[in-house]
C-alpha cells in the first residue's frame, strides 16, 4: 500500500470535518449555524455550510480511493477543494464577516484543513510534472 502526498493531503479534509463539528461562531457548530440560517430564512447560507461538510466528506472518500490505488482524476481533487473553499468563503462573506460575529476554534481548524489539502495538492502536482 503506497501512500502518495496526494492521498495523505486528503487528511486535511478530516480537519475540515472536525472543525465543522467544533464551535465555529456564536458558540455553534456548523450544523447549528445551518439550522439558525434556515430559521432566519437564509437558506442559501445553510446550503453553503452543508456544502462545506459534504464536500469535505467527498474529499475523504477520494483519499480512501487513492489509498486503495484506484484511479481518480486530479480534476476531481481540484473541483472538490475549490468548491469546499468557495462554500466556506461564501458563508463567511455573506453572513459571518460582521464585527459582532467572532470566529471560534472550529473556523480556524477548517482553514487549517483547507491549507493542508491545498499545499499537499500543489506539491503533488508540481512533483508529478
Written account of the structure:
This protein has 129 residues and is mostly helical. The chain has one domain (5-128). The chain has six helices and no strands. Helix 5 runs antiparallel to helix 6 (105-128). The model has no long low-confidence stretch (mean pLDDT 90).
Q: Structural class, from helix and strand content?
A: mainly alpha
Q: Counting H and I runs of at least 4 residues, what is the number of helices?
A: 6
Largest sheet: none
Radius of gyration: 15 Å
Task: Round the mean pLDDT to the nearest integer and report it.
Answer: 90
CA-to-CA gap between the ends? 23 Å
β-strand percent reads: under 5%
Record field, number of beta strands: 0
Low-confidence stretches: none
Shape: elongated
Give the % helix.
over 70%
Tell me the domain tally: 1
> Which oligomeric form is depicted?
single chain
H and E string: HHHHHH
